[in-house]
Q: What sequence folds into this?
């Protein structure tokens, strides 16, 4: 099994990214061939500041390494260090129609939110298909919001293979139900674009501010508290079954207010990431850059022969 996924360096990593994607990717490195990358080309569709993109790319790489991604057990690179993916995207672009791309939720959402869409935003799913098909990924762990992009990648794969012969492997989306949609502190999907995130590597003060602002109803200390809502949903992500039972009891108990539970959650978050935080502080820019450079070489060695075959099949190589 070959597992592949990418994350855009478009802002700081939050708990939604961590539980839906990064934690699961790191878990896969023990039992599959893992391909993991920082989607810097994709981030350009929304991030229009060179300094910020550079910074977030380094930070995302550092985050992954701190969380336990092992570059010896996986291929880990920055998307824009492997430009082959763009040539492949061009070849694959002929296997999807404009009306199909016009149906893209993520594209439509951004347009309806008032963003003037660059051509890159429209092309986004084609590049994503090249990321996936170019490495013959069989399984792609993502959150639910990426499902449609995966379906487009599958369509492109089928159409290309029908036209030119079986070159690409049909990928499957791997969407874990329990983390398909991690809520933010306001109860909507946790997302950089909504400013409702809990940053994994934020300072204690930042995390505290966000945790204390999680919306709840107005049940008093002596009433059973509601398990519906972001406080319970976020808290239980950190717990095993016994932990969840204890949390249920806390929600049912008298004399415990939402404020107490928020303090416990803060403590749980701190403890959960304490070791990663130390590892992160020890990773210098030089070390991170060297790891990413080596990763890009390995990624290029995988995509190049496949791109050459696509060039041959489509007549670009003459
Ligand atoms: P954001 O919405 O904050 O910009 P990204 O689009 O960069 O996040 O998402 C990176 C990965 O994390 C994707 O696989 C995406 O599906 C997943 N993801 C992001 N937010 C959530 C969430 N709130 N719940 C579940 N998965 C999420
Ligand atoms: N679009 C994904 C996101 O916003 C990032 C991404 C780019 C990706 N290429 C990919 C994810 C290939 C999985 C496979 O989260």
A:
């Amino acid at each position: 099994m070959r597992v592949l996924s990418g994350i855009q360096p478009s802002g700081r990593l939050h708990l939604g990214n961590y539980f839906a994607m990064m934690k699961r990717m790191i878990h896969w490195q023990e039992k599959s061939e893992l391909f993991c990358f920082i989607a810097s080309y994709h981030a350009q569709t929304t991030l229009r500041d060179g300094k910020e993109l550079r910074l977030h790319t380094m930070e995302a790489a550092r985050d992954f390494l701190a969380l336990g991604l092992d570059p010896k057990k996986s291929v880990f690179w920055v998307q824009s260090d492997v430009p082959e993916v763009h040539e492949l995207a061009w070849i694959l672009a002929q296997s999807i129609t404009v009306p199909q791309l016009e149906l893209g939720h993520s594209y439509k959402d951004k347009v309806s939110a008032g963003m003037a869409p660059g051509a890159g935003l429209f092309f986004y799913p084609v590049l994503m298909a090249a990321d996936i098909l170019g490495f013959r990924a069989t399984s792609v762990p993502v959150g639910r919001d990426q499902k449609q992009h995966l379906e487009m990648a599958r369509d492109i794969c089928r159409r290309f293979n029908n036209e030119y012969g079986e070159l690409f492997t049909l990928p499957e989306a791997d969407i874990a139900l329990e983390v398909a949609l991690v809520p933010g502190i306001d109860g909507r999907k946790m997302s950089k674009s909504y400013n409702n995130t809990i940053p994994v590597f934020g300072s204690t003060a930042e995390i505290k501010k966000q945790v204390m602002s999680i919306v709840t109803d107005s049940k008093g200390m002596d009433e059973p508290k509601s398990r519906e809502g972001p406080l319970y949903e976020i808290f239980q992500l950190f717990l095993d079954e016994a932990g969840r039972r204890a949390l249920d009891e806390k929600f049912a108990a008298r004399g415990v207010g939402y404020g107490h539970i928020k303090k416990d959650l803060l403590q749980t978050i701190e403890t959960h990431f304490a070791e990663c935080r130390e590892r992160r502080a020890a990773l210098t820019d030089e070390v991170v850059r060297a790891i990413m450079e080596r990763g890009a070489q390995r990624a290029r060695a995988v995509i190049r022969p496949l791109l050459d075959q696509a060039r041959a099949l489509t007549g670009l190589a003459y």
In short: Residues 2-181+284-314 form a domain with the Rossmann fold fold (CATH 3.40.50.620). The first strand starts at residue 2 and ends at 7.
